[in-house]
Amino acid sequence: MLRDVHEVLGWVVVVANAVAGLFALAAWRWRALRGRALWVGVAAAQATVALQVVLGVLLVTVGGLEQPDIHVFYGFVALITVALMYAYRDLWRARRWLELAYGLGGLFLMGLAIRAIVELP
After folding, report:
1. Cα separation of 46 and 109, whole Å?
2. Where are the domains of the chain?
3. Closest by alpha carbon to 117, among 80, 109, 2?
4. pLDDT tens-digit profile of 48-65?
């Protein structure tokens, strides 16, 4: 059951971060798109990453599921990426790169999630 949720949520992570990344890039280009909806979407997409990592850790520790080390690595890199994006937000805002950085970061998270899915047995 938990493994099925983890598998489906992996694709949710891919789609959510792709949409949020593209939305942020569009907002970087067109000011009218900047607003609360953008940041709610980005936060929701990044929350899926955190939830996915928590589920993965539960599957390995409680469920005893064996995963390739590279799959686990991609999950933790994604979580660290979310943390670093949050840590650098003030610098990027000051340089007017905030939407650009979050757009590229969202697409990077999408790519990590795809790579993690591809590495599954």
Report:
1. 9
2. 2-118
3. 109
4. 999 999 999 999 999 888
